[in-house]
Amino acid sequence: MTNAHQTPRTPDIGATVLGYPRIGPKRELKRALEGYWSGRTELDELLGVGERLRERSWRELAGAGLDSVPGNTFSLYDHVLDTAVLLDAVPPRFRELALSDVDTYFAMARGRDDAQPLEMTKWFDTNYHYLVPELGPDTALRLAGDKPVAEFTEALRHGITTRPVVLGPVSFLLLAKPAPDAPAGFAPLSLLDDVLAAYAKLLSALAAAGADWVQLDEPALVADRSAAELTALRQAYERLGGQPGRPNLLVASYFGELGPALPVIADTPVEAIGVDLVSAPETAEQIAGLSSLRHKTVVAGVVDGRNVWRTNLRDALSTCATLLGSVGRVAVSTSCSLLHVPYDASAETSIDPAVRPRLAFARQKVDEVALLGRALSAGASGEFASASRQANEAFSEVRRDERVRQRIDALRPEDARRPDYRERAEAQRSRLDLPPLATTTIGSFPQTGDIRRARADLRAGRIDDAEYRNRMGAEIERVIRLQEDIGLDVLVHGEPERNDMVQYFAEHLDGFAATEHGWVQSYGSRCVRPPILHGDVSRPAPMTVPWSEFAQSLSEKPVKGMLTGPVTILAWSFVRDDQPLAVTARQVALALRDEVADLERAGIGVIQVDEPALRELLPLRERDRREYLDWAVESFRLATAGVSAATQIHTHLCYSEFGDVIEAIDGLDADVTTIEAARSRMEVLADLREIGFRRGVGPGVYDIHSPRVPDERGVEELLRLAADAVPAERLWANPDCGLKTRGYHEVEPALRNMVLAARNARA
Fold first, then answer.
1. Strands 120-122 vs 129-131: parallel, antiparallel or unpaired
2. How far apart are CA 695 and CA 678, in angstroms?
3. 698 near 725, Cβ under 8 Å?
4. Is 705 assigned a catalytic role?
5. Is the same domain home to 271 and 183?
6. What number of other Cβ atoms are within 10 A of residue 159's Cβ?
7. pLDDT for 707-759, tens place per residue?
8. Whole domain around residue 285: which residue ranges?
9. Which of 181, 319, 519, 610 makes an SS bond possible with 652, Cβ 3.0 to 4.6 Å?
10. Last residue of some domain: 375, 394, 413?
11. Considering the domain boundaries, does residue 354 fall inside one?
């Protein structure tokens, strides 16, 4: 039913945001979840926290002057998992547990007994993680839940009409993976008809409940899509758009340009299309050339939903104004959901006063959207002129360090090269004398209550720096002794002194600012406080050397020095946007290079530089990837290439689809690459074997994001699978990721089973 356009019914969508943070301004949901999982609190208390957070968000957004308030953006764990449960895509292993609905939901996210959790991976090029639905030809998809309707009616009871937000049917299928028992060649997209039948019922239920608008998110469309996938997109929205009696439909996409998907959606009978004009400003020109948009609303994402800087209001208003003559209506919005930024910049009272005026968190971005909406409909006012002037003044001074810039200019190609791997491997064998299938961990050990109390006591002034260092030293010694008792071959100091693997370094580097309350959800109950990279980066003093040197003095076994790589520091920070990322990456790399050199001088023979975000920042369009991978690989090598052949460089990557960056992983030229592999049962090793990877590999042999303790036999089975792809002399045994979020009651038996399995496999 092409070229069938409907005139939008009132009320129009107006100024809005595509989503809002859900963890709570004080991480209320995190605490409620962890209380429920540990058995300390009842389900009613957890659900009550969710109700209060939803009401607070709805009232806050409505009170800020938005014309349309998004709903169904709350989740107890993950919105993709919510969609899978809504559609009854529950794999049999979870049904067989015979749990309550909510405990089945959490089992899918975290695992339970022998039921492995769903695979977890990054949400496009963000640091948010989603649970990957498993679908097979026998998956009977149907509308099995009512969460969107229940939350819509819940908001109505508070006097607020929301716009329910649901992951779109095409993106749901494109983000899913074939179930383990699915036949070769099965594609989840083949289930489109069943999914559309379920969505049609959902739209009818929402219309019956009184919903005027429903937002269907289709972020998968900003990646390269095949002709068949675009045909599926057309079929989906011709069918849903042609459904009688439905609500108005907003199809929203973000994180990039829609490209060839835009005219496809525009030619279907939906009322509104949301576009990201921050990451893809060129989309404005494409919109102007589409006559099929002349009767539709374009929701213009001109306020950055992924970064923390204030909006250039005049430029944003100008962008919206240029669309007015080309489309039916223009509504102002954020570029994506505000899930990716903290709640409120006004809470940051102790941040660098030169940085604070430049910041806009979720609450401030809502105000920016509302102000832009008023200016677009009624003209720029004195209020708008004042806010615009303040934003411009806030950016008048960005800190530059000429010494850093001169050092960047002086770089030579050889600064990013090490000796040939064969020479390095021989030198490292002689120095380290490790067995085949050497065992290690990824770096962090559990952050106990005692560690957190010591950090809180230091911040509050109840203990001095000397006492804090004594407590951390005692914890490091305890962790070293535990690892020796377990029998690990390469030890770590456990990182008790580190609050976060990026924030810790940001606090020790010039050019960064740290927040106090800037929490952002990473997955489930896991929250991070991304630092703010606002100026030129340099290292004023060693950051990790004293801790690593002390740890190494406690053992005859090698102890790894632990650093976070330049790409990951960028990916997990809010980064300045006034210069290319490649330049900023080189600045961070040179600061890390100085730290690596100091670790080597202190006698540390194994240094791990983690790059779990290498895949995360990969551009979504193929044409943009080579440039990114070139500077990403170069920055890692700049950070690590200044050491001798006998110093073993490790890197770690986790929770991404690695096939797209497999050659870049090889290009990092690390001596040992540890990588997430347990949930996918060593899938990544086939990719490494295909490209002829010839260096050390440590595929994760158990999933640390699940509370399950792996048994010895299960670990040994995974090691045997790994040994089919990697010779034992280059194979390592390690967990999937760091152990910071687990407890010792899980960590110790898991590591003992891993060591026993490795010994069995050696034999």
1. antiparallel
2. 20
3. no
4. yes
5. yes
6. 9
7. 888 888 888 888 888 887 788 888 899 998 899 989 999 999 999 999 999 99
8. 28-394
9. 610
10. 394
11. yes
